[in-house]
Amino acid sequence: MTRGEVTTRRAVPADVPELVAFWARVGENGSRPPDRPELVERLLQHDPDAVLVAEVDGRLVATIVCGWDGWRANLYRLAVAPELRGRGVARHLLDLAEDRLRGLGAERFCAMVLDENKLGTAWWRSVGYEPQAEWSRWVKDA
């Protein structure tokens, strides 16, 4: 699909090095562990449609991970190159991700956004998402 000069598609294994580098450069990384190529490769093997990318002239400019475990729909790693923010690229990727997840049976979407990411939290609010105050995310290293 094309939107102006921006083309969107699903990520493929050959994209993994560029994805990891892109997320390190423009993603919300705060307190997260760093992304590792082998984990992204594993995700694409498990669910080849989980990572959507946007490109301009073959250059990666935006991503979103739309994961589905058969019960819950989760959105991660929405990242847009700073020079393209505010042009609708994130909204377009989100629409594609939500359509995909809805088609798989999702009835609710959960976006993972670090609290310290003020730009991200403002954007997610602007597209209808709200923080769920009664929940906290609990994590433990495997």
Describe the structure.
The chain has 142 residues and is of the alpha+beta class. The chain has a single domain (2-126), classed as Aminopeptidase (3-Layer(aba) Sandwich), CATH 3.40.630.30. It has 4 helices and 6 strands. The chain has helices spanning 16-26, 37-46, 89-103, 118-126; strands at 2-3, 6-10, 51-56, 59-68, 73-80, 109-111. The protein has a 6-stranded mixed β-sheet with strand order 1-2-3-4-5-6. Strand 5 (73-80), helix 3 and strand 6 (109-111) form a beta-alpha-beta unit. It is globular. The model has no long low-confidence stretch (mean pLDDT 92).
What layout of secondary structure does this protein have?
Layout lengths: L1 E2 L2 E5 L5 H11 L10 H10 L4 E6 L2 E10 L4 E8 L8 H15 L5 E3 L6 H9 L16
Poorly predicted sequence stretches spanning 5 or more consecutive residues: none
Radius of gyration from the alpha-carbon trace, in angstroms:
15 Å
Tally the helices: what do you get?
4
Sheet with the most strands, sense and barrel status: 6 strands, mixed
Q: Write down how many β-strands occur, each being a DSSP E stretch of 2 or more residues.
A: 6
The CATH topology is given as Aminopeptidase
Report how far the terminal alpha carbons are from each other: 38 Å
CATH architecture: 3-Layer(aba) Sandwich
Structural class, from helix and strand content? alpha+beta
Order the strands across the largest sheet as they lie in space.
1-2-3-4-5-6
At the first level of CATH, the class is: Alpha Beta
Give the CA-based shape.
globular
Q: Compute the average pLDDT.
A: 92
Provide the β-strand percentage band: 15-25%
Helix content: 25-40%
Order of helices and strands: EEHHEEEHEH
Give the domain tally. 1
**Full CATH superfamily name:** Gcn5-related N-acetyltransferase (GNAT)
